[in-house]
């Protein structure tokens, strides 16, 4: 029973990891940019939700109406002001630029809010602790199920968007060959800005649930980035559905590790991440690699 409970809770935890990794995976898949400010931006969004709830009493779910478009504008500005310029100078410069942005956000948040943790838990009623009974002493939290459902809907929606819509196909074509798409009338500059806006909009949603599920501090963005990065790499950075699989694998392994010893919760997840990296580095051309490539083509 303990193992079954660990599998269930780990799967739901994986949905949380997949949700916070969604924007990171999307930006890498369509722009080939690793955004090291991803975690800091999610925490920034979480603080916006907290300020509006604490100071004005605005329901966080209502705040989504304003924060998601606002984060999309931040994404547009990030692409035009930082990423577009930095990517012209190789792969390292965007990493340094987004790392610098993360440090800036962290310190601005610390200056404004101090080191005290903040949470949206007091502003969502009983959602944070309500649960359903599955019988046999097993329970699943309503908030955890909601987060898992949002992760599936978001990743599935983005996959369909990329595969079935003209704009989605333009984004994929730009990702494959940005120098050639201009010949067919596609503005790579505009498409990349739209892709960055979409990625940051998902970060806004992730930031809300991040602050609902626990607490955030100005410097908690690094932990968010690590878990998002691990989920993306474990599932395969070329597939959004792979991000969901990676998040579930990470969550389940952590839960099983904690079942053995609470101290193994983080170590087990990091160990699986390291094992996946080693396999992909040492065996890039195996049938496993080809299977992953086909999966990415089938489920973008």
Structure description:
The chain has 300 residues and is mainly alpha-helical. It contains eleven helices and two strands. The protein has helices at 2-31, 38-56, 60-86, 92-113, 142-164, 166-176, 188-213, 221-235, 240-260, 264-282, 287-298, and strands at residues 131-135, 138-141. The protein has a two-stranded antiparallel ribbon with strand order 1-2. A hairpin with a 2-residue loop joins strand 1 (131-135) and strand 2. The chain is globular and about 60 Å long.
Helices and strands, with pairings:
Layout: H1 2-31, H2 38-56, H3 60-86, H4 92-113, E1 131-135, E2 138-141, H5 142-164, H6 166-176, H7 188-213, H8 221-235, H9 240-260, H10 264-282, H11 287-298
Antiparallel strand pairs: 1-2
Task: Give the strand order of the largest sheet, numbering strands 1, 2, ... along the chain.
Answer: 1-2
Strand content: under 5%
Derived from helix and strand composition plus strand pairing, the structural class reads: mainly alpha
Instruction: Please give the number of β-strands.
Output: 2
Report helical residue fraction.
over 70%
How big is the Rg? Answer: 19 Å
- Point out poorly predicted stretches: none
Distance between the termini: 36 Å
- Secondary-structure element string: HHHHEEHHHHHHH
What's the story with the biggest beta sheet? 2 strands, antiparallel
Number of helices: 11
Instruction: Name the overall outline.
Output: globular
Report the average pLDDT across residues. Answer: 89
């Amino acid at each position: 029973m303990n193992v079954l409970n660990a599998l269930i809770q780990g799967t739901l935890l994986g949905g949380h990891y997949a949700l916070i990794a969604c924007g990171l995976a999307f930006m890498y898949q369509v722009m080939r940019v690793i955004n090291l400010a991803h975690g800091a931006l999610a925490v920034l969004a979480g603080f916006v939700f907290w300020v509006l709830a604490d100071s004005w009493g605005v329901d966080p779910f209502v705040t989504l109406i304003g924060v998601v478009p606002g984060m999309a504008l931040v994404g547009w500005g990030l692409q035009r002001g930082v990423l577009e310029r930095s990517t012209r100078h190789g792969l390292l410069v965007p990493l340094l630029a987004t790392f610098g942005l993360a440090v800036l956000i962290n310190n601005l948040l610390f200056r404004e809010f101090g080191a005290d943790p903040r949470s949206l838990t007091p502003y969502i009623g009983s959602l944070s602790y309500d649960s359903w009974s599955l019988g046999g002493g097993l329970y699943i939290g309503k908030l955890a199920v909601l987060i898992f459902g949002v992760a599936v809907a978001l990743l599935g929606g983005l996959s369909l968007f990329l595969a079935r819509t003209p704009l989605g196909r333009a984004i994929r074509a730009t990702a494959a060959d940005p120098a050639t798409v201009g010949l067919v009338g596609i503005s790579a500059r505009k498409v990349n800005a739209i892709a960055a806006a979409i990625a940051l909009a998902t970060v806004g949603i992730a930031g809300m649930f991040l602050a609902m599920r626990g607490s955030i501090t100005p410097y908690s963005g690094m932990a968010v980035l690590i878990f998002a990065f691990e989920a993306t790499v474990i599932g395969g950075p070329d597939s959004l559905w792979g991000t969901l699989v990676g998040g579930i694998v990470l969550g389940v392994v952590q839960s099983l590790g904690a079942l053995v010893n609470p101290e193994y919760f983080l170590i087990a997840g990091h160990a699986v991440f390291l094992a996946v990296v080693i396999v992909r580095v040492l065996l890039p051309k195996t049938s496993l690699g080809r299977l992953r490539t086909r999966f990415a083509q089938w489920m973008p």
